[in-house]
Design goal:
The complex is a heterodimer of chains A (414) and B (483). Helices cover 35% and strands 12% of the residues of chain A. With 414 residues, chain A is an alpha/beta fold. The longest helix of chain B has 37 residues. The chains are: A alpha/beta (414), B mainly alpha (483).
């Protein structure tokens, strides 16, 4: 074949490659129906923004278009899954930088919300923030106590707080003082009376049995059961005349996809590999529950409406006490055990809400309010963390960048 | 909007290419100008008015200079035009910096400070004001003719390929192409290939190495070790090169796809054997601009050694300041100015007699040290960082081992970055052509076809790797376990 033909063929192949590469994703998006939900990402996808009615609305409109196109361009899911595969296959690295870190022995760790920085002690609370947080909790407790309602607060530990040695080989060398440890140090190692310490018993018990799922952020049923025991030790002290049911038997371990929701670990889901990991995990034996579903009080404000963040009521009619539980996903495996001990429990999927408490008090007075949330969100009221750290994206926000703009605007542009 | 965004790559660019393919002549210029203004407004919103003001102001100034060339009125028009550009740049870029420094001085003497609300910096203002100034200066010197069509001048100032990150294009380089241009398949293919290389440099090398540099530079001095500092400095050295040269490649590639031929902006700067050589290879359009519009008008090297040194100091003071409104940028500029002056001294002539590889290493050490100044938030931080690099380690060993940041991916990226910073491909291409030319006809064509195949396979691989990385950048799983 003559050289100039080879060159011409090569040239046209390059043009074809380029035009297909830039044209196909957009064309595919335009020709396929838009989705509003991403099963992979477990979230609603961005919608087209409303057209601007003034020049001032143009930035919002353009940002909205960017968000829409970022969520809807063609072959998005395929490209993302290919990226994650390549990262793991070529570099043995998590395909979700800034969100999931591959630890040792196949353990996965969540790294969003600056969890690694917290582990290294790089996001400390100031003294005034700690004071403010303690004051907020004390005020909550005092308000409830004046109404003869007991209040308990518990922090479900971050996985790396219990298993630092699984995080990375150099973990002890880089460990700093986390925010929770700052609180402990501030109080001389003793948490406030209304707080239940879950860190110490979990660390003590971890031994040979895993208390957290390898591929999930959450504790497994064994870890949850341990937390349940600690909570009821404290509840028992508050209500000494009550006999609580706290002994539940474990069955044989099950080998399956596991995870807090039983469909694979949430960290594996982020990596889109939840169907790749089957591991043994503990299961409680079935028991005949006393508790029955009940109706939530009407008119409770601002409850999440998503199916996977349910608020509901249940109770065992033979019991005396009632409770309100403000909880997150860590409390899910404890719910059916907890409810066996109360005549009525209102399970609300949110942080403690004064507004909700006042609404509840209009129709009933609970004996106990329990607030339980994961450690990483314990101090959100005084120092919320950004969802994704600076290393979360392919394109980082740099404090001082090269002399032209970065896609995430944080640097001096020219 | 930036070149590596989904919006630009999969929507804006295909649409503009398609529409440009359907238009000719004036219509094409109108289309490109509208597209460029939309591109600018996308990220800057109301600050598009700054761009429009610049276009109108420079258009009017250009006509005045042309009308009164070589007269006092012409000089006044030049002064007015350049002054307006500098006022624009000065206000948006330096006002806050100047007021902050003024307030510090006022505080020293116990006087109240001046209050100034934060001023938004319109993207690319440093580039398009410098372009506009070069147009007015060349017009006054008579090296170009005034552009009497507002659309065409607007296109020169606002053309989106080089708007936000250069290269700084001289009017005379594209004056003919603004009026008449033709896009051949060779141009388009070369442009596409160049764009892919530039995007790959940015996404696959600059961004990930930048992540490592960011983490290391964010550590307090007490946590740093010499190895960690060198790692951070090297990562930043590669980040800034691949980021900036990547953008230039994309700009040049885009320009060719639309029929414009911009000049090269980088020429393997990290193989420079001296700082002087470095500035002939790094951001060539800026160094040429400074040479032609600052250094030479100041007298260049035509005066005494002292005068030449003063001119170099002045140029590099401005060079540093142009890069950013902070003393670290100024320090970086003066740092380079110092070495340029030194190279002209007897010590520099002594240096020129050293073994060539040693000269390369010394130059690279100076450049890397300069980047530490450039990257640091404050001079104190920069000095602490450089001190640790030199072995003055406050806490021996530091807290974080360098190996913590060196996983397999980072090692591969660093190795690739180091190799590609060398002019390997041009060397291989030259040698390859020489070898092919020596072969007999059938072999020549077979091997040429093979080489072409490898080139396209490489491009395809780069597209694959870059595209999946871009997609990962917008992957955002809902943190359902937030609650």
């Amino acid at each position: 074949m003559p050289a100039n033909t080879v060159t011409a063929c090569g040239r046209w192949l390059v043009i074809l490659l380029f035009l297909v590469a830039i044209g196909l994703p957009g064309l595919t998006m335009l020709l396929t129906p838009a989705r509003d939900w991403s099963e992979r990402e477990k979230r609603r996808l961005a919608e087209l923004p409303a057209p601007p009615v003034s020049a001032a609305e143009l930035p919002r409109f353009f940002t909205g278009i960017d968000a829409y196109l970022n969520d809807h361009f063609g072959f998005r899911g395929l490209l993302v899954s290919r990226y994650q595969r390549e990262m793991e296959k070529r570099f043995n690295r998590s395909g979700a930088p800034g969100q999931v870190q591959q630890g040792l022995d196949g353990w996965l760790f969540y790294t969003a919300f600056q969890l690694l920085e917290d582990f290294r002690g790089e996001t400390p609370l100031s003294a005034s923030q700690l004071d403010q947080w303690l004051a907020e909790q004390a005020e909550k407790e005092a308000w409830l106590r004046r109404r003869s309602i007991r209040y308990l607060l518990a922090a479900a530990p971050n996985k790396q707080s219990i298993y630092p040695e699984k995080l990375m080989a150099k973990a002890p060398a880089i460990k700093g003082t986390s925010r929770f440890e700052q609180l402990e140090q501030r109080l001389g190692g003793r948490l406030p009376a209304y707080m239940v310490d879950l860190h110490t018993p979990l660390r003590r018990a971890k031994g040979d049995q895993d208390l957290y799922y390898k591929h999930d952020t959450h504790w497994n049923v064994r870890g949850a059961y341990l937390a349940f025991g600690e909570l009821f030790q404290r509840i028992g002290a508050l209500f000494p005349d009550q006999a609580f049911t706290t002994d539940f038997a474990f069955g044989p371990d099950v080998t399956s996809y596991g995870g807090n929701r039983g469909i694979g670990g949430d960290l594996a889901i982020i990596l889109q590999r939840h169907l790749d990991f089957k591991a043994p995990y503990p299961q409680l034996r079935r028991f005949a529950p006393c508790a029955r579903p009940m109706a939530l009080p009407e008119g409770l404000s601002d409850l999440p409406t998503e199916e996977d963040r349910p608020s509901f009521a249940a109770g065992c009619p033979t019991r005396d006490l009632t409770a309100v539980v403000f909880r997150d996903s860590f409390f899910v495996p404890l719910e059916r055990l907890f409810v066996e001990n109360f005549r009525e429990v209102l399970f609300l999927w949110k942080d403690y809400s004064q507004e909700n408490m006042e609404e509840i008090l209009a129709t009933r007075k609970p004996d106990l309010v329990l607030e339980i949330k994961v450690e990483r969100h314990l101090f959100d009221s005084v120092a919320p963390r950004p969802v994704l750290s600076s290393d979360s994206r392919v394109v980082p926000p740099t404090p001082k960048s090269p002399p032209h703009p970065q896609p995430v605007p944080a640097a001096p542009a020219l | 909007m930036v070149f590596s965004s989904i919006t630009f790559l999969f929507f804006f660019l295909p649409a503009v290419l398609l529409l440009n393919g359907c238009t000719r002549g004036r219509a094409s210029n109108v289309l490109l100008l509208v597209a460029s203004l939309l591109f600018y407004a996308w990220g800057e919103g109301i600050y598009l008015l700054v761009m429009l003001a610049s276009i109108l102001g420079n258009f009017a100034a250009g006509l005045l200079i042309d009308r009164f060339r070589r007269t006092t009125a012409g000089r006044a028009a030049l002064g007015l035009g350049v002054g307006l550009n500098l006022v624009l740049l000065g206000f948006f870029k330096y006002a806050v910096f100047l007021v902050d420094n003024l307030n510090q001085l006022l505080a020293l003497v116990g006087l109240p400070g001046v209050a100034l609300e934060p001023v938004h910096l319109p993207i690319g203002i440093s580039f398009f004001t410098f372009q506009a100034i070069s147009y007015l200066m060349d017009l006054y010197r008579g090296t170009v003719r005034a552009q009497r069509n507002l659309i065409d001048l607007g296109l020169y100032i606002a053309l989106f390929p080089q708007l936000i990150a250069g290269p700084i294009v001289r009017y005379h380089d594209i004056a003919a192409e603004i009026v008449r241009r033709r896009v051949t398949s060779a141009d388009f293919a070369a442009g596409a290939e160049r764009f892919i290389y530039g995007l790959a440099k940015k996404v696959l090398l600059a961004n990930p190495l930048g992540l490592v540099a960011d983490k290391i530079f964010a550590l307090p001095a007490a946590e740093l070790s010499p190895a960690l500092c060198w790692l951070g400095a090297l990562c930043y050295t590669f980040q800034i090169y691949y980021d900036f040269s990547g953008y230039s490649d994309m700009a040049i590639g885009l320009g060719r796809m639309f029929g414009f031929h911009f000049l090269e902006n980088f020429n393997y700067p990290y193989v420079a054997a001296s700082i002087r050589d470095f500035w002939r290879r790094w951001h060539i359009s800026l160094s040429n601009w400074l040479r032609d519009y600052v250094y030479i008008p100041l007298g260049g090297n035509r005066g005494s050694a002292v005068r030449t040194s003063a001119n170099l100091w002045a140029v590099f003071f401005l060079c540093g300041l142009w890069h950013g409104a902070a003393w670290t940028f100024v320090a970086w500029g003066l740092f380079h100015g110092f070495f340029l002056v030194l190279e002209r001294s007897p010590l520099g002539r002594l240096r020129d007699r050293l073994w060539l590889p040693l000269r390369h290493v010394l130059t690279l050490v100076v450049v890397v040290a300069g980047w530490v100044l450039f990257r640091s938030e404050t001079l104190a931080e920069a000095l602490a960082f450089l001190g640790i690099m030199a072995g003055f380690d406050p806490i021996p060993g530091g807290r974080y081992p360098a190996a913590m940041y060196l996983d397999r991916k980072t090692v591969v990226e660093l190795a690739l970055a180091a190799c590609l910073a060398l002019p390997l491909f041009p060397f291989l291409r030259r040698r390859g052509r020489e070898i092919i030319d020596c072969l007999g006809r059938p072999w020549r064509h077979t091997i040429a076809a093979g080489v072409e195949g490898v080139r396209i396979a490489l491009l395809g691989t780069l597209v694959y790797c870059t595209w999946i990385s871009l997609a990962a950048g917008v992957y955002n799983p809902f943190i359902y376990f937030r609650f």
